[in-house]
């Protein structure tokens, strides 16, 4: 298997088919049996004419008709089970690709989402995965079609070397021409999927911000933007459809020429007495039969062209470099929660030095919100510092695996989304097994929220928590972070949509539930800052002072402007 950085569309296709080799092999075997049955039908009919009809032999007629019935039964069964196996292989390959893509997008090292809107990633994980999965079905169809052509050619060779050579020499030429004709379809299919993904991404983006757009009266601008994007997608789809129609039409015309050549040669041979009447009927029947596998090969070419285009897009996501490289160092055990930043520079942070003691409740006030975001990215290891180090209990974060780091250190971002499910299910999403989220729900004020809802903690929550108010969503997100019970918790502005009375109660609750465990509150809320052990003032990417909240209020105009404005 290729490494992620070297993964190509061809590798994705190969792995998709190889992963379903059992179903592919079974489907190809049954499909080949079906094609063999299709070949036998005109052969048996020719034998009926030569050995029963011509000699008026009723017994032979009944015997050959019975043989024909057996052929039809085998043909039908092999088709049914072959099609089932093909569908199963395609569905399984599609499912495996979706899981692989989602695993890569959710990988702690990140990177797959860079430069892509969520809607585009969703399109790749659905439509592109479906097209690549269909390649497994196309592979089986292609194998069985080739078997049908080969067997048909052998039968024709036994009747006449000339007829057999027409098929054996004409089929490779037809396949080569079909491959050349599929090239424009491949490039246009890739463009079609790119445009469709972009249109889906823009639509998802607009729907997510619909309330804001209506609030600012931006519906017309948003509609114009989507209309342009959708028109581009339509044009790309039409170009791909034209390319597919041209490819299918040309291959069908070429196939017709080959079939006509077989029929013409067979007719001349019969007229010269080189083959019997029954053999002529069989030859014409085989010529008509060949339309099926040759059309299948044309379809296979089209599916492969579209599959290659989609596989290339999937490979780009799977091969996207991680934002951070997983380390191999183990976490210190037990995790005490001591954090040290030494000379950290990232984005707007400039040589940041900060020591956070185990069990400390620290407040961080940043005069520039972007600097707060940069600090959170460092602590969550979404990005490694451009200079300096961040340590947890003396172990540099860059030496840790991000997934392992998050078992000890959790960064709860301000815009954290909720999930579709129940209120309680959202709170316990990251909680240890068999833990009681009651304390976390009380501390974050979610118990009060549950009392106002029809089904309490079991009330259904819609996608992204849109069925809840902004303040309710924030409290549920905070409760989820508290219920995770991480040794180190970093929370960013968890109460901006909460009233002052509730905010004061939450501040007290957070201090109580996090007692003895390291907690960092990145916020400008006076209520939250007042319960911290000390507050760090971050100005221009540097720490300019650190002291209890009340002391900073007294001696810093900048601090007062940040937290009291």
From TrEMBL:
Membrane topology label: Multi-pass membrane protein
Any idea which UniProt keywords this protein has? ATP-binding, Membrane, Nucleotide-binding, Transmembrane, Transmembrane helix
Q: Name one GO cellular component term.
A: plasma membrane
Task: Name the species this protein comes from.
Answer: Streptomyces lacrimifluminis
- GO MF terms held by the record: ABC-type oligopeptide transporter activity; ATP binding; ATP hydrolysis activity
- Membrane-crossing ranges are 24-49, 61-79, 134-157, 163-181, 249-271, 277-300
PROSITE patterns (alphabetical): ABC_TM1F, ABC_TRANSPORTER_1, ABC_TRANSPORTER_2
Q: What is its main location?
A: membrane
> What name goes with this protein?
Multidrug ABC transporter ATP-binding protein
Location of the ABC transmembrane type-1 domain: 25-306
> What Pfam families has UniProt attached to this entry?
ABC_membrane (PF00664), ABC_tran (PF00005)
Where would I find the ABC transporter domain in this sequence?
333-565
* Subcellular location field: Cell membrane
């Amino acid at each position: 298997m290729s490494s992620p950085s070297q993964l190509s569309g061809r590798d994705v296709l190969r792995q998709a088919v190889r992963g379903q080799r059992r179903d592919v092999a079974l489907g190809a075997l049954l499909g080949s049996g079906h094609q063999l049955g299709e070949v036998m039908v005109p052969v048996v009919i020719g034998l009926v004419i030569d050995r029963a009809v011509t000699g008026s032999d009723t017994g032979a007629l009944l015997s050959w008709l019975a043989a024909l019935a057996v052929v039809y039964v085998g043909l039908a069964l092999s088709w049914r089970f072959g099609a089932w196996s093909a569908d199963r292989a395609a569905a399984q390959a599609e499912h495996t690709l979706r899981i692989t893509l989602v695993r890569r997008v959710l990988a702690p090292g990140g990177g797959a989402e860079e430069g892509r809107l969520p809607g585009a990633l969703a399109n790749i994980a659905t439509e592109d995965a479906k097209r690549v999965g269909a390649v497994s079905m196309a592979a089986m169809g292609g194998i069985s079609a080739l078997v049908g052509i080969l067997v048909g050619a052998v039968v024709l060779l036994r009747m006449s070397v000339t007829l057999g050579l027409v098929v054996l020499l004409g089929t490779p030429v037809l396949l080569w021409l079909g491959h050349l004709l599929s090239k424009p379809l491949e490039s246009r299919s890739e463009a079609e999927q790119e445009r469709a993904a972009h249109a889906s991404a823009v639509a998802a983006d607009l729907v997510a911000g619909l309330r804001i757009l209506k609030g600012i009266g931006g519906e017309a601008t948003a509609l114009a933007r989507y209309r342009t994007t959708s028109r581009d997608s339509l044009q790309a789809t039409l170009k791909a459809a034209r390319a597919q129609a041209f490819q299918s039409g040309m291959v069908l015309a070429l196939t017709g020429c080959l079939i006509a050549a077989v029929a013409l040669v067979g007719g001349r041979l019969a007229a010269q007495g080189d083959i019997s009447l029954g053999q002529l009927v069989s030859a014409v029947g085989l010529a008509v039969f060949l339309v099926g596998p040759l059309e299948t090969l044309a379809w296979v070419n089209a599916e492969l062209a579209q599959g290659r285009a989609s596989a290339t897009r999937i490979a780009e996501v799977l091969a996207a470099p991680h934002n951070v490289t997983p380390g191999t160092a183990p976490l210190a055990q037990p995790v005490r929660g001591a954090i040290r930043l030494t000379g950290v520079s990232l984005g707007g942070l400039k040589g940041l030095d900060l020591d956070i003691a185990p069990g400390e409740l620290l407040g961080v006030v940043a005069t520039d919100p972007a600097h707060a975001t940069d600090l959170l990215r460092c602590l969550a290891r979404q990005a490694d510092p451009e200079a300096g180090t961040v340590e947890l209990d003396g172990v540099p974060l860059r030496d840790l695996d991000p997934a392992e780091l998050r078992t000890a250190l959790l960064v709860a971002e301000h815009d954290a989304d909720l999930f579709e499910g129940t209120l309680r299910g959202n709170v316990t999403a990251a909680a240890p097994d068999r833990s009681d989220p009651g304390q976390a729900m009380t501390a974050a004020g979610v118990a009060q929220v549950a009392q106002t809802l029809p089904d309490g903690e079991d009330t259904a929550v819609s996608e992204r928590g849109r069925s809840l108010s902004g303040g309710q969503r924030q409290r549920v997100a905070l409760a989820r972070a508290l219920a995770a019970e991480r040794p180190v918790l970093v929370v960013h502005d968890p109460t901006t949509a909460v009233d002052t009375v509730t905010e004061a109660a939450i501040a007290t609750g957070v201090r109580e539930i996090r007692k003895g465990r390291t907690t960092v509150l990145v916020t400008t809320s006076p209520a939250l800052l007042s319960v911290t052990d000390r507050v760090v003032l971050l100005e221009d990417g540097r720490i300019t002072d650190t002291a209890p909240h009340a002391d900073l209020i007294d001696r810093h105009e900048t601090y007062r402007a940040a937290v009291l404005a």
